Amino acid sequence: MSDILTGAQKRALKSQAQRLDAVVRVGQAGVTEAVVASLDDALARHSLVKVRFAGFKEERRSLAPQLAQDTRSALVQQVGNVAVFYRQGAAA
Fold first, then answer.
1. What stretches of the chain show up as alpha helix (H) in DSSP?
2. 90 pLDDT above the threshold of 80
C-alpha cells in the first residue's frame, strides 16, 4: 500500500504524525498476534498510528514492513525506534 501514497501525501502524513504519541508498543515478546490486532484496531479508529519498538530494536527495520503488510496499511516513515502507519478509510 505504501506505493499508493504520493510524496506530497507522505509529507502531509509525516507532519501530522509529529504531534501523535505512540499508541502501540512492540515489547520483548515481539510482533505477536496481540500487537497486530492492537495496531489493526488503532488504524480502524485513527487511520494514522505511531508504533514504538521498545524491544527488538535491531529487527525493527524488517518488522515494520511486516506489520504494514499484516495490517494492510502503509509504512509512512521509520525514524529510530518509531514507525508511522497509515490506512485510508478510517474515521479521523
1. 7-17, 33-46, 60-70
2. no
